Amino acid sequence: MPTRIAMTARRFATMTAIAGFAVACETTGPTQIAGAGATFPYPMYSKWFDEYHRLHPAIQVNYQSIGSGGGIRQVTEGTVDFGASDGPMTDDQLVAFRDKRGSDILHFPTVLGAVVPVYNVDGVAAELRFTPEALAGMFLGTITKWNDKAIAAANPGVTLPATEVVVVHRSDGSGTTFVWTDYLSKVSADWKTKVGANTSVNWPAGIGGKGNEGISGLVKQTNGAIGYVELVYALQSKIAYGSVRNAAGEYVNASLESVSAAAATAPMPDDFRVSITNAPGATAYPIASFTWLLVPAKIEDPAKHRAITEFLKWMLTDGQPMAAELGYAPLPTAVVERELKVIAAVK
Amino acid sequence: MQSPASGRMEPGSNSARVQAFVRRLVSGDEMTRFTVTIAGGVIIAVTALLVFELWSNSHLARETFGLGFLTGTTWDPNAGEFGALPFIIGTAVTSLISLVVAVPAGVGAAIFLAELAPHRLSDALTFCIELLAAVPSVVYGLLGVFVLVPVMKSAVEPPLRAVFGWSPFFSGPFYGVSVLTAGIVLAVMILPFIVSVSRQVLIAVPAEQREAALALGATRWETTWRVVLPFAKRGIYGSIFLGLARALGETMAVTMVIGNSPQLKASLFAPGYSIAAVIANEFTEATDDLYLQSLILLGLVLFAVTIVINGAARLLVAGTSRKADAVA
């Protein structure tokens, strides 16, 4: 009998200890921050959140890369603490957020990405140069042969064959497509009226591949193909890509420097909702974009408020040098300084 | 039997009934009945809930487009114009191609495994075929892109064009990714279902049936064709429906090889698009309400297309069986 009592007592003690531990975790456990959205900066974000959690074990960020559209929806519904998007929210979406949540939402640029034209033309080994007119013409379906003079004129010394142009575009809704079509809308009036810019559009020509890997697979296998992929993807998988003539008339190859230059030369509004495609600088790569974190201007929970604002500060300062390692272009310092001021506005 | 006069008997028979009920309860009879009823009810409830959710979450798209959604041919998220016809046709045509390829191959393989192959070989091959059913669809898609597409370009398209190039179904430029390629990938994917189930059904045909036919002087082929297959046909049809259902709903493998272009072209060489593929591709980035609801409405359309195609197939089967029975 005594043993049974002892056992019961021990069991009871263990259970109390577990319960006590659970309660302790509840009160002093890490501050959990939930975010959702863009897939393009996901490798960067997951590195930042890991690193920040290592430095500040009390703060843990769970980020779901469900796509920009999902990120905007979820932060508007309030199911996550912050959203992330490859394209800025539209005016309608800002109004919807204000109606639903009673406060504004702030855009914080985090890193920069670029989109590059990739191609595969048998018999052409040289790196090709593209004019905006050539890119728009091919994607509109009006330029159908690689030896078209719109392409040939920009590439003196390169003999282009009469191969048929096969356009390869993304089939999944994507921020990459948004940047690409946003650029084409700016450089081609025809594109703007017939197609426009969005994460998915009604493509006038070509075939669709799923994801960056789908595009690169189709381009590699198809003679005469032209597609577009993220710079990060092209760098990591070592795909050759062409240079593009920018607004200043220079042919610029996409690189971390030329992308940051685009961000530095584009005029920046106060709410950071800006498209930097076709940026004016002479060294600026024209098909580039910010990617944003979407943070409510009013955060009720003081612990979350502190965690989010501290993280944003860290990301804009100590976090930025990590971007280049992963192939993302870091923000220009002028943008960082303006963002740091805006963080103070988060109530 | 109790008469109305013997009132005293009633409580007694009631308690007998209660006792019988308790006995059935204890022996598990009632429990089983209850459990399987619940299980059956859950299936109906889930289906009903699915339709209800798809219906109620697509009201804006239904009000905007009405039945025109089914006949619309433009899918333009920027203009807010959504039509489902290219996707409906893409889904139907790829599934049809997959059946045309997989049914003869699958049923043939099942006949070989059940009737001709030595027992041990049959078991080993069946095991391999069933493994195929467990391969994730994205793997089929990747194999499709990197293996099948080059083969299609070099070995399948040129002979097809040489022989059938005069018809609109095999003309126009060919990029490797196409409705035809998607149909063939689907055929490979549904093959394991057809082979595995058909073989089981063929094996279950009583040996007496075969022996009787052989005893009457039928050859082995006549036995298989005239006796075994008719006996097993319902089960074989069942295996085809299983494959068809998988083909209609397949997403990942299709989107990787179909070319994802919502256009109406007669040519099987042209790229196309399917309902499941466009939903998977565009759902995550669909921001405005009408766009999102149109995708949900496509889900409802896929549900309807599945019912219609499956129903039509069943009617066809019922029709042919009746005719066959009448002839027999």
Your description of this structure?
Chain A is of the alpha/beta class. In chain A, 44% of the residues lie in helices and 18% in strands. Chain A contains 14 helices and eleven strands. In chain A, the strands form two sheets. In chain A, strands 2-1-3-11-4-8-6-7 form an eight-stranded mixed β-sheet. The longest helix of chain A has 27 residues, at 2-28. Chain A is elongated. With 328 residues, chain B is mostly helical. A two-stranded antiparallel sheet of chain B has the order 1-2. Chain B is flat, with a radius of gyration of 26 Å. The interface between A and B is medium-sized, with 37 and 32 residues.
Features:
heterodimer, A: 347 residues, alpha/beta, 8-stranded mixed beta sheet, 3-stranded mixed beta sheet, 14 helices, 18% strand, B: 328 residues, mainly alpha, two-stranded antiparallel ribbon, disordered N terminus
- Helix-and-strand structural type of chain A: alpha/beta
Radius of gyration of chain A: 24 Å
What is the residue-averaged pLDDT of chain A?
A: 87
Count of alpha and pi helical runs of chain B = 13
Largest sheet of chain B: 2 strands, antiparallel
Straight-line distance between termini of chain B? 48 Å
Content-based structural category of chain B? mainly alpha
Tally of separate helices of chain A? 14
Produce the secondary structure layout.
The complex is a heterodimer of chains A (347) and B (328).
Chain A: H1 2-28, E1 31-37, H2 42-55, E2 59-64, H3 68-77, E3 82-85, H4 91-101, E4 105-120, E5 129-130, H5 132-140, H6 149-152, E6 166-170, H7 175-187, H8 189-194, E7 207-209, H9 211-221, E8 225-230, H10 231-236, E9 243-245, E10 251-252, H11 256-265, E11 288-296, H12 302-316, H13 321-325, H14 333-343
Chain B: H1 9-27, H2 29-56, H3 59-65, H4 68-71, E1 75-76, E2 81-82, H5 85-116, H6 119-133, H7 137-164, H8 179-203, H9 207-215, H10 220-249, H11 252-257, H12 275-282, H13 289-327
Antiparallel strand pairs in B: 1-2
